[in-house]
Amino acid sequence: MSLEVLYTISSTATGGGRDGHVKSATGRLDLDTRPPKEMGGSGEGTNPEELFSAGYAACFLGAIHAVARGEKVALPAETSVDVTVGFGKTDSGFGINAAISASLPGVEQAVAEDLVSKAHQLCPYSNATRGNIDVDLTTQV
Prior knowledge:
Elements: E1 11-15, E2 20-24, E3 30-33, H1 48-70, E4 80-90, E5 93-103, H2 109-122, H3 124-129, E6 135-140
Helix pairs in contact: 1-2
């Protein structure tokens, strides 16, 4: 895949990975990481899946807005995206899955579903995960 890079950012993890610290090069992200209680940790920090779900949700919402602008569809301010990330064991180690729930209140169901489907093709997170993890997509109006 050819990519014309428009932006780069790096982050550094220190400590024990899931039980450590992450900091971005800009310093705007500066967080302790802790395994969630469900995985035997304290749950008192963030974790990779939480960070992934937040990034995916923001990116996917941006993709919906981009598609809507291109199709001249006005989106309500209440438009939102929730991304739930699951973590678990696989036959060969560990893996994740994602469930994306897009809410476009007041938009006709067929129009909303079309926008979300097209956003799924545009979103960089969707493109990065396509064929690699299970992603469930739902649209609410």
